[in-house]
Automatic annotation (TrEMBL):
InterPro entries: Lon_prtase_N, Lon_prtase_N_sf, PUA-like_sf. Residues 3-191 form the Lon N-terminal domain. It comes from the Bacteria. This is LON peptidase substrate-binding domain-containing protein. PANTHER family: ATP-DEPENDENT PROTEASE LA (LON) DOMAIN PROTEIN (PTHR46732).
Amino acid sequence: MPIETLPLFPLHTVLLPGASLGLRVFEARYLDLVRECGRSGRTFGICLILEGAEASGPALPAAVGTEAVIEDFDTGGDGLLTLSLRGARRFRARRMRVRDNGLQVAEIEWIDEPPAGSVRPEHAALVTVLRHMLERRGGDHARAAGSCFNDAAWVGWRLAELLPLPDEQRQALLQIDDPHERLELLLSLVG
């Protein structure tokens, strides 16, 4: 099996599967990354920064991150490149190296998602919370099919995205593989 690599864009935020993220790009290493992704059709990874800054030298990223798919791009009024991203698959970084331009590239393995499971009765209150949040907020997920609200993984990712949580808690939720375990943690956080 060939080793798969993914360029990384460490940030002081967590991108979750299915979530959207707006990003302004100004550093040369990340402009190169976006050009490379545009030419090759590849994606890149977003990881939470554990130590360091977003700009300047390489930061220490979390080992579990989310693949970022570029949905749209534009140039802002300040001339900077702006990206609209969507979170896709989760991955675990095994080894990292830094290119000459400062861009981090990781050898990764994709994290297999468990088969879709229904929301359990003990987590039904979370579905109610999510429905109310989406009614007030609107956006992409407010128009989701009713069946999504019975999908434990989808409900968990949307709550992790929308609740006002510190990035460390979002990262902990990202690292949980079992959607029911994720909902249990979310229940303890909102309870």
